[in-house]
Amino acid sequence: MSADIFTIEPQWIVQAPHLRCTLKRALALQATQNVWSGTEHINNAVAMAYGDQLPDSGRWELTRSQLRTLKIAIEWRRAKRAASDKKTAPDILEHWTQVEDEVIAAYRAVSDEAGLYWI
Fold first, then answer.
1. pLDDT tens across 59-73, in order?
2. In terms of domain of life, where is this protein from (predicted)?
3. Contacts of residue 53, Cβ cutoff 8 Å, sequence gap at least 6
């Protein structure tokens, strides 16, 4: 496996559909909310949302760019969730948060490896 690939293994069936839905929502609102600032992330989002890169079972092998695309979408979704008065079942929210945190941690680790430190 290439050093440029990071592996995430989702543990719950709701995690992949949640991230694909997050990407699809962000893509749908990209024109008005500018979720991503470049076409690279939009292309990544389309490929992950509609392709087979985030299967419901099995591991995901993602590049740093794909991790950053997901990280941006997750942060956008979390902000939307915090601003909403809708409630999600606690067990589902826990599973969503688990995979979101794992993606963000993976992006942070890959960035640190590349010498791109967070402030």
1. 999 999 999 999 999
2. Bacteria
3. 47, 60, 62, 66
